[in-house]
Structures are given as structure tokens and as C-alpha cells.
Predict the structure.
Amino acid sequence: MRHVAAILKMTLCVLAFCPAAAMAQAAASATSSAPAGADGALLQKALEANARGDCPADLMGADLLAACHQQISVIQSMLSAKGKITRLEFLGTQQGPGGQAETWLVVYERGAQLWGVSVGPDGKIAGMFSRDD
């Protein structure tokens, strides 16, 4: 069963939370004016909304929003099972195929996950990706 859950989480990452085109666009046009670690509040708001079954248009770019709507039932189930977020810890930035993203450790009442988040020039999340810790 754990193997199936791992495959599902990788599928979420590939299909819903890693829109490479959106992340590449964000990286190409983003400025370096935001300090490192500035995207944690957006990430937390998006995760809390997803756990409630919402895809917040005010937080997500168009491509990510479309992917979220397609898979929200699976995303909601995964996140709500972990409980409320108890803390976020900024781990740094990473350069990936889609551009630069911040890496965060998100600790829940029942578990933790590593999350990456990339924010576009419009201030909305262009890409999110996760991996269980």
C-alpha cells in the first residue's frame, strides 16, 4: 500500500504540481527582489486551501490552477489526512529544470513533507511539488 501511495504522490508531482512551462516562465521573468524564504506564506495558504478542497485562484497561476482543479479530490485526501500545518521551515532554494524554487519542510500534525514552490512575476504560485519526508 505504501508503494501505491508513493506512486500516487509522484503522479501528483508530475501531473499537477510541477508545470514545467509555468515554472520556466516564472523563472525567466521573475526578479530577484524577493528575499529567499519569502514564498512560505503563499505555500501554506495554498496547502491549507487544498486540504479543504479548494483551488485558490488568487494564489495560483493559470496552469497550476487548472491542474489543481483536475486533481483536487486526490490532493485534498492526501493533505487532510496529515492534519493541520504546525510549522514551516525554509530549507533553501534549488535550481531545477523549470527554474528556481524555494524548498520548505512542512510539518503537519501527522507527518511532514518537503515542498518546493515557485512564484511567478504576478505574485501567484506558478508551480508546487512535494515529496514525503
